[in-house]
Amino acid sequence: MSSSVLLVEDDCELAEIVRDYLTENGFSVAVESRGDSAVDRILKEKPDLVVLDVNLPGLDGFDVCKTVRQQYQGGIVMLTARLEEIDEVLGLETGADDYLTKPVRPRVLLARLRTHLRKIPGAASETEGCIQAGALSVYRSRRHVELRGVAIELTSAEFDLLAYLTERVGKIVSRVELFEALHNEVYDPQDRSIDLRVSRLRRKLGDNQSNPTRIKSVRGTGYLLSSEP
């Protein structure tokens, strides 16, 4: 079962871009364009997360957040084109969990949503269950990893990286995406922490560093986790 997001945005083009990107990354996304209608949907549908624009017809995002906050326990990330500091203060005072200014980079929003999803008790598949990648088993809720039934000791940072790759097994994941998802900040091309973390993971998983078969390097792009045994 996918984690659910209600995207409240009256810019149809932006809403479509964000919806498609989040859907491609495993979320179930519904879109609402009016603030007053969003209140009813949030309280009735109780999505795991709400992405809420400030400037909305019917009711602005601040009032939407303030109205639902006492009855809605999920994460709320607010979006706005206004840069004044007072906007951010007001947004957080009304109960928002996070705040991003437009133009919003979908990868940055995705990273923020994943961060908030981990904080929600009972949130859907992002944090529960076992994910298989060949002989590799990753248990998100217990933060536990096994290779052919043998437990592998990983640091928290190594686990986060492996879990992210496992959710995209067989797909190329760029360094940019990995960095921004795991560090929750804009990519820094001078930072080699992801490469170093991959190197440590390979060693612990018994992968050949010079010719890896489990976590493969994709030249000039990033990495791919193989589903082979």
In sequence order, what are the helices and strands, one letter per element?
EHEHEHEHEHEEEEHEHHEE
Shape descriptor: elongated
Overall pLDDT score: 86
Given as residue ranges, the uncertain stretches (5+ residues, pLDDT < 50) are 124-128
Number of separate strands: 12
Biggest sheet strand order reads 2-1-3-4-5
Taking the alpha carbons of the first and last residues, their distance comes to 26 Å
The main sheet comes to: 5 strands, parallel
**So how many helices?**
8
Helix content: 25-40%
The radius of gyration is: 19 Å
How big a fraction of the residues is strand? 15-25%
Secondary structure class reads: alpha/beta
Describe this structure in words.
The chain is α/β, with parallel strands linked by helices and 229 residues long. It has helices at 12-24, 35-45, 61-68, 85-93, 106-117, 156-166, 175-183, 193-204, and strands at residues 3-8, 27-32, 49-53, 75-80, 98-101, 130-133, 136-139, 144-147, 150-152, 172-174, 215-218, 222-225. The chain has 8 helices and 12 strands. The strands form 3 sheets. A 5-stranded parallel sheet has the order 2-1-3-4-5, sandwiched between helices. Strands 6-7-8-9 form a 4-stranded antiparallel sheet, with helices on one face. Strand 7 (136-139) and strand 8 form a beta hairpin. Helix 2 packs parallel to helix 3 (61-68) and helix 5 crosses helix 7. Residues 124-128 have low confidence and may be disordered.
